[in-house]
Amino acid sequence: MKLFNSYTNKMEKFIPIEEGKVSMYVCGPTVYNRPHIGNGRPIIVYDTLKKTFEALGYDVTYVSNFTDVDDKIIKRAKEEGISEAELTEKYIEGYNEDRRSLNADIPDITPKVTETMDEIIAFIADLVDKKAAYVVDGDVYFRVNAVEHYGALSKQRIDDLMVGARIDENSLKENPLDFTLWKKTDEGINWDSPWSKGRPGWHTECVVMINKEFKSHRIDIHGGGMDLKFPHHENEIAQSEACFHTHIANYWLHNGMLNLDGVKMSKSLGNTLLIKDMVKEIGGNVLRWAFLSAHYRAPLNFNDEVIESARNELNKVMNSYKQACVKMQLAHKDFKAEKDEKLWNSFLDEMNDDLNTPNAFSVVFETVKQLNSALRVREIDYDTVSKLVAALEGMMHVLGIRIERTVLDEESYELYQKWNEAKAVKDFEKADGYRQKLMEKGVL
Length: 444
Prior knowledge:
- The structure is a single chain.
- The chain is of the alpha/beta class.
- Helices cover 48% and strands 14% of the residues.
- It has helices at 37-55, 71-80, 84-101, 117-129, 158-162, 205-214, 229-244, 275-282, 284-292, 304-330, 341-352, 357-376, 382-399, 410-424, 428-440, and strands at 2-5, 10-13, 21-26, 59-64, 133-136, 139-142, 179-184, 191-192, 197-200, 219-225, 249-255, 258-260, 263-264, 300-302.
């Protein structure tokens, strides 16, 4: 497996910390709304990465958090007239529902900020003791100058950042780049701390959760969207460097952003599409296929043309697969687990090349082509068909495309027999009738 490491900006061979195991953390959502399709891209990308590692025989521990403490949550809870806890539970449930609708596995561990508060407060206190953070009137700020290589991930110089438009000006800070670790407030949910009653800043939670869940200051992979690279991931690294002298992960991965027909999706433009609505409209398989049609690091321009292309490509795969399943059963042949080794290895080679799904799709299409050819001959080699089917099923599993074998019942067997008999005697009217019934049963 080779991965593009955003920290070094290089393609690197993946070498796990512990042989045969992968530790992976991906920043999760702030749960104040149902996720839009832009949120769906990291769900799909990192689920596909997990499935690829598993196909290679690795034991993967996948952690992704829920941020259930935030100003947006407080505001939304007031608008809906419910408690923050009720709001976040509702949207956590909705997020998991959407995740499953995209055929993504629920991560092994999904920690919440509210359940990690003791560890967060202890971590901030440690940073204060190490002089990497300071207290001003109950607020706690991280001292960016406490680390030598701030900006190493996003490849930005501190001098440039100082004049950047994104700097949060605050006269109480020693440095305008310093960021909040603890916010003094009595609004919304809050906790007692050595500095004030308040709640933590956003950038601290992931560092703490990684240490807590993996029992380690360094993991194999940290992932997230390109928009998290700065300042969120940069600030995570700064805190970890100051406290543990490590930049958290050996490999940093960032997926590209999603545009809607060439326009960046945003609430202000009113062009956000929710996952649940898109899945209802086009299905989870089509949406996932469309997302994987572009390389995960590239921007994805999502439009009707992309959807239609995904639908057509997927239909070709599904039709060939269904035909193979039917013909195997009509011939009373058993499916075997053995895959077509050449095609399966070619597929994995592409997935091992920094998750190159567009090239992996090409192997899927070649498998479908060979399957169609194997089914069209007079004397079908069912052993070959079985191997091609097994390879195709393996590929679809890694890509997260849900497929089910068509199972013929007794009535379907009879309809197929009558259909073939009608075609043999060129009674096309009857043949069309039997064909229509088979289509209605979903086995043709």
